[in-house]
Design goal:
Length: 149
């Protein structure tokens, strides 16, 4: 005869469970009220982030680089543009007092690029900070210093 109280208890418990479920179900939609807050803040897509990859360009004329040095960021490459119908051979090193001095600094990318005239080639990337010297083996005094920061 002790089964009736148990059944009652069971009924009460299930009822409580159902009630709590209902409470949870009812609470959920209430909490998700602040949805329309982030409406229209579509600030116009401004300012095209300037200068694409053309930033590290050095032009070469018949006998020299347009600039004697260029500063780039670590990991960047340099685009060399041969603007005339004259060949160049760019390698690691420099002209010192009229003498070609091949040399490759620690961390420098190996550079050995031939231009046949009116062409464009990339050198690098320069992955180490430092100062690196490049020269044209054909044209005396044709030096380019690359500063990597
Ligand atoms: Cu040259």
């Amino acid at each position: 005869m002790e089964q009736k109280p148990l059944r009652l208890l069971w009924l009460v418990l299930t009822a409580l469970a159902l009630v709590s479920l209902l409470l949870v179900a009812c609470t959920r939609p209430g909490t998700t009220s602040s949805t329309a807050a982030n409406a229209s803040s579509s600030s116009g897509s401004s300012s095209s982030a300037s200068s694409a990859s053309g930033g590290n360009t050095v032009k070469m004329d018949a006998t020299n680089f347009e600039v004697s040095s260029i500063t780039i960021q670590k990991g960047e490459s340099i685009t060399l543009v041969d603007t005339v119908a004259v060949p160049h051979i760019i390698q690691n090193g420099s002209w010192v007092n009229g003498t070609a001095k091949p040399a490759i600094e620690p961390g420098a990318p190996k550079v050995d690029v031939q231009f046949s005239g009116n062409d464009t080639k990339q050198i690098g990337p320069f992955t180490t900070a430092g100062t690196f010297k490049l020269y044209c083996t054909i044209h005396q005094g044709m030096n380019l210093t690359v500063i990597v920061k």
